[in-house]
Amino acid sequence: MLVVDELKKNEPHLRLVAVGLAVGLCILLAGLWWVQVVSSREYQSHLETQAYRTIRLPAVRGKILDREGRVLAENQPRYNLSLYLDDLHQPFDKAYGELLKAARAMQKQNIASAEKRLGRSLSKAERKQFAFKPEQLQALREASRVRVANGIVAQVSQKIGQPLTFNPVLFNRHYATRLALPFPVLKNLDVAQIARFQENFSGSLGADLELQSVRSYPLGDTAAHLLGYLQHDDRSDEGEESFFNYRLPDFRGAVGVEYGFDDELRGRAGAESLLVNSQGYRQSENIWSQPEPGQNVVLTVDLDLQRAAEASIAKHHGVDARAAVVVMDVRNGDVLAMASSPTVNPFFFTGGLSPQDMQREAARRADVKLRPEINRATQENYAPGSIFKVIIGLAALEAGLNPEKFYDVQADPTRSGKGCVYIGRRKIDDTAPPGEYNFKRALERSSNSYFIQTGLQAGADRIVALIEKFHLGEKFDLPTRQETGGNVPTPERIHEGWSAGDTANMCIGQGEVSVTPLQMAVVYSTIANGGTVFWPRLVSRIEPQDPTSREVATNLPSALVRDRIGVSARSIKVLHNAMLAETEDEEGTGKAAVVPGLRICGKTGTAQVTDERNRVVDHTTWFASFAPFEKPHYAVVVMVEGGTSGGGSCAPVAHDIYETILEKEKSGTRKLLAAAN
Amino acid sequence: MFSTGTTPRESFDRLQIAALVGLMLIGTAFVFSATMVSDVAATLPWYQQAWVRQIFWYALGFGAAGALCVVDYHTLARWSLVGYWAVILCLVAVLIPHIGSMRFGARRWIDLGFFQFQPSEFAKLAFILAGADFLSMPPDELKRPLNFWKAIGLMMLPFVLILKEPDLGSALVLLPTGLVMMLVAGTPRRYLVKLIVGVGLLASVFVADILFAPAKWQIPMETYQRNRLLIYFGRDYTHFALPNATPAELQRLRQRQLDDAYNVRQALISVGSGGLVGKGWRQGTQNALGYLPRAVAHNDFIFSVIAEEEGFVGSVVVITLYAVVLFTGLRIAGQTRDRLGKLVAVGVVTLIFSHVFINIGMNIRIMPVTGVPLPLLSYGGSSVLCSLIAVGLMQNIHIHRKGY
C-alpha cells in the first residue's frame, strides 16, 4: 500500500510512528463504535429524556342519555385565554436587554458617584463590588418576563373589555415548572369576549384561545343523585403510562352513574410529546397516541317521568322536601325514574357557581336535617309502615287465610271512632274504625288490628321466609355506590328473644323492619307481575359516542330474574283486587292517586319515626302502587319524610306521575296510529 | 530539465491535497450547520457568518501554504530560530494584561481587530521547524547529554509559556511532537525511556494529588482545570467538601458537578444519538435546540455535530481523511533524503495526530476536556491557518525532496 513500501526501507523509527498512529486511530474508531453503534439507543433515550416532555391528554367523556336518547350529561367546550410562552422568548430577550442597559447605566452612575465621594478612581477590587451578581441578573430576567407578560395581558384586557388580573408570582412559578405549557390568563370566556378577541388579535401576539372540555348537565339538577358528579383526578389508569411530565386536568366520577360507569365514560387518555430546547421552550409537538373518547351510557330512566316526579314533589312539598320516588317497569325491573329530594347542584364540585351560590349550597349540604347529598331512593333506610302489609297479607293468604272471612276490630277505649288490638297487655292503635273487616276492607282502610291478627296466625316464620324471597335486607349491588340494604328480621333473629309484640310490629311495618324506596318498588313490581323478583336495572346499554364508529353498542342484560316468591295466582288476584279497592273505593285511603282512564292498585302507609326514648318525632309517609290493573306495567313508589299521611302527602305525587304515564301512552299510540296510516 | 539557481520540483502529493480538500469541505458544511441555527445568525450579513469566514481562512491558508512551497524548506529552516524566538516573544506578550485579551478566563489571544491572533498555534509550527533544525545534526552529536537537554529545553520553553496562559491542551500537544521527533532523530533509547518514565511518574503523582489529596496538599491549579480532570475520572465533587458541609452545600457541589460535566455529557449524547447513519445534515437536534452549547459547538465540539448528523459513517469518513493526510505525511517522511525533511514531516504528522486524538477523544470522553481544536474542521482563524501551513510544509518537503 501507500506507506508500507516506503517503510520497508529499513526505517524502524518511522515504522514505529506508523504503528503508533494506526493504534491511536483504531482506539478512536473503537471508541466511536462503542458510543455510536453499541450505545446508540441509550444516548438516544438520554436525548429524548432531556429534550422531550410528555403530556397526558384526557379523552372526551361519554354522555349520559335517558332511554330515548335525550341528553342528561354532556360536555361543553370552554375557552380559556392563555399565553404561549414559546412565542414570547424574543420579546423576553429584548426586554431583558433593555433592563440590563438601564441597570448598567445605573451601575455606572453608582461607580461615578462613589468615585466622586472618594475623590479618586476605584480599584479593581472595589469595582467588583458594583458588579452584577448572578441573583441580580436572574431577578432582571424575571422582571423582564413579567413586564412583557403584563403588557400583553393589559393589551388584551383593554380590547376585550374585561379587567384581567395578572399575578406575577403565579406566572413565575409557571415559568419555572411548566414552561412548555400555555399560561392561562382568563378562564371561560363568553361568546362576546371570544368574538372581540378574535377580531383584534388574529396575528401572533403570544396569547391565544385554548379549548377545554367541561362536563355540563343541561337539565340542571334533574336526576342529580342518579347521575352523580365528578372530581378532579388526573392520575393514570390501569395499563396506562404512569409517568408524564405534565397532566392536563382530568376528572373521575365520585358517585352515581358517573362513578359506576366511569371506566366506560372516560375512554382512554392519549399522550403527546413536546420537543423542548435547552431553555425549556416548546419547539414542536407530536401526538403519539390519540385519546380514545369515552362511550355513552344510556340509562333506563325516562326523562319525562323523571321530570314529572321531581316537579310533583316540588309542587306539593316544596324545594326542601325530603322525599323519594321510584318508578319501575314491573315486567323487567327497568328503573324508569328515580328522584330524590332535596337535590344538589351538580356544579358544586366542577366549578361554575358564583361565590354566593357556592356558600348557599355548602350551607345546605351541611344541614343535618336536609342532607341533600343522600339519594333517598336507595341510600336511606325507612320504616315501611302500612305498605308492608301486602307482604303480611300475601304470607297469610298462602298460609290459608280466607280473604272473605270477617274479623272483628274492637273499639279503642281511649280514642273514640278508632279501633285497636291488644297483644298481651300492650295496646296497638288502629287508624281504622272498629267493625267487621275482611281482607279487602282491611287493606283499603289499612287496619292494623286485622293484619296483626292474621300475621300472628300465619306465624313469624312464614312471614320472614317470604321476606327473604323478596330479598329485603340485602343490597342490590348498584353500580352507583349509593346504597343501603335495609334491615329485616332473619330466621335466626325471630327465634331469639322475639315476642309476639315484635311480630305485631313487623306486621305493621315498624320495629325491626326498614327498607329503601327502591326495595319497595321491587316488592310491588313483583306483586304486580305475579311473583317474579327482578334485579332493578339502571343502565340499558353502552354505546360509542360517534354514531359512525365501527364499535358496537353493548346491551346490558335486562329482565334478570333474582327469585320467584312462589305464591299462588289466586293469592295474587285477591291482593290485586284489594289494592284496586284502596284507590277506587270510597273508603280507600289512596283515592288521591286516581287518574281517570287508568286503573291503579295502591297501598298507603304512614310509619312512625321514634327517637331513642321511643317518642314519636316524625312520620314517614308512603304510597306504593302499580298500574294498570288489567295488565300491570308500571310500579310507582312515593315516600315523603315528615308528611301527614300516605294518602294526603304521597298519593297526589303518584297521581301526577300516573297522569304523565297516561299522556305518554296516549301520544305513543297516536304516533303509532299516525305512522300506520 | 534542470533550471540553474533553483532546485528542481516534483509535483504535489495529490492524494494528500485531495484529503485536505475533503476536510475543508466537511469543515465548511458543518460550521454552517453548527452556527446557522439561531434566528440571530440568519440575520447576519453574509460576510459576518461563520462559515463564510471559515472559507476565507481556508483560502488565506491555502495561499500561504502555497507561497511557502515556493521556497525550499532548507531555506525556511535557516530562519527557523528567528521564527522561534519571535513566537516566544509573542507568547510572553500575550501574557501581559493589556496586550493579551482575556476570554473565558484565559489569556490566549492578541486582539488585532479583525483577527484574533493566537500565538500558541504558531508556536507549535515554530517549534517543529526549530526543533527539526536542531535535531538534524549528525546522530553522534545527538548522543551527547548536553544536546539532549538542549532539545528538552527547546520544547519546555514554549510549553511553560503556553501553560501559563492557561492552555493545557495546546501545551500538551507539544510533548508527543517533541518526543517523536527526538525518537526519529536518533536520540539514544535510554534517554528517552528515562524521560518517559520520569514524566509518567510525575504525571501519576500529579493526577493522584488532584483526585485524592485533601485540600492542604493540593497542587495549585485553576479550578476549572481541576474540575475537568475530576469530571474525566468521574470523581464526585462532594468528596472534596469540608467534613461539616451542610446538605445544601453538598447539593450545590453536586449541581456544580453536573454543570461542569454538562459539555461532555451533551457531547456524548450528540455523538451517541447519531447512530449508524446520523440524523442528516442540519437535522441534529442537540445543536439546534441548544443543548450543545453554542459557544463550543462550532470549534471544540464540532466533531459532536458531525457525529450526530452523519453518524458512525460520517465519523469513519472524517477519521479516514485524517488517516490519509497522516499516512501520506509519513510517506513523505520516508521519501526524503535528509534528516531535516524527515523530522519536519514526522513532527507535523505527530502534531496533527495529537490534535485529532485529543479532540475526538474529548468528544467521546476517552480524554479529559482540554480545548484542543480539530485541525481544519474547527472554526478559528489561527487554527486553520496553522493547520494549512503545517500541511504546506509537508508538501514543501515532498516537492523539494530531490534537492541536490
For the structure shown, list the relevant keywords.
heterodimer, A: 677 residues, alpha+beta, B: 404 residues, mainly alpha, 3% strand, disordered N terminus
Provide an overview of this structure:
- The complex is a heterodimer of chains A (677) and B (404).
- By secondary structure, chain A is an alpha+beta fold.
- In chain A, the strands form 6 sheets. In chain A, strands 2, 3, 4, 5, 11, 19 and 20 form a 7-stranded mixed beta sheet that branches.
- The model of chain A has no long low-confidence stretch (mean pLDDT 85).
- With 404 residues, chain B is an all-alpha fold.
- In chain B, 68% of the residues lie in helices and 3% in strands.
- Chain B has a 3-stranded antiparallel beta sheet.
- In chain B, a hairpin with a 2-residue loop joins strand 1 and strand 2.
- In chain B, helix 3 packs parallel to helix 18, helix 6 runs parallel beside helix 9 and helix 17 runs antiparallel to helix 18.
- Chain B is globular.
- Chain B starts with 13 loop residues before the first helix and ends in a 5-residue tail after the last helix.
- At the A-B interface, helix 1, helix 2 and helix 3 of A face helix 9, helix 13, helix 14, helix 16 and helix 17 of B.
